[in-house]
Amino acid sequence: MSFKFGRGLLGPLKPLIGSWSHTGEHNGQAVSVSRTYEPWGKGWVRLTAAWTLPGKDYVEIAFYGPTDDGSLGFYSFTNDGRRSEGRLADGSDVHDQAIAFVARFPAGTGRMIAWPRDDGQPGFDFAVESRTQKGWSRFLVQRFGAA
């Protein structure tokens, strides 16, 4: 499967529109994750991401759309009270069709990346990385398929 980007500011998000799920392990615990990207209002995409871990649920709501300077960015809010914002970035070091966003956090800089699955199935691989002196250090990888 390859990503087919749409036109306009939100075009890079077109391959992600829909409901996706992942079941696996994170930090030694079973986890299930859903990610739903859907058009929201004029010129925005809303992400609802829900993690189910043993004894804990974690939810993120994010809005992707224009930043103050007109570039594509996101504004994220989580049920543990955290908030972040980031901008579209280059992810071509991971995959030539990667969609990447970079955000600054109190602990440093992070990058989220999605790219087409390599097994021909609908969906995408998703990773989160932190910036180190040597480059990007990956600490989360998940494979999403149609929900």
Description:
This protein is mainly beta and 147 residues long. It has one domain (11-146): Lipocalin. Helix content is 0%, strand content 62%. The chain is built from no helices and ten strands. The protein has strands at residues 18-26, 29-39, 45-53, 56-66, 72-78, 83-89, 99-105, 108-116, 124-132, 135-146. It has a ten-stranded antiparallel barrel. β5 and β6 form a beta hairpin. The two termini are 17 Å apart. The mean pLDDT is 94.
Keywords:
single chain, ten-stranded antiparallel β-barrel, 10 strands, mainly beta, 147 residues, Lipocalin
In short:
With 147 residues, the chain is mainly beta.
Q: What is the 3D shape?
A: globular
Low-confidence stretches: none
Major β-sheet strand ordering: 1-2-3-4-5-6-7-8-9-10
For the report, how would you describe the main beta sheet?
10 strands, antiparallel, barrel
Task: Give, in order, the helices and strands.
Answer: EEEEEEEEEE
- The CATH architecture name reads Beta Barrel
Instruction: Tell me the distance between the termini.
Output: 17 Å
| Helix percentage range | under 10%
Per CATH, what is the topology? Lipocalin
Count, helices: 0
- Portion in beta strands: over 45%
Oligomeric state of the chains?
single chain
Mean pLDDT: 94
The radius of gyration is 15 Å
How many domain modules? 1
Task: Tell me the name of the CATH homologous superfamily.
Answer: Calycin beta-barrel core domain
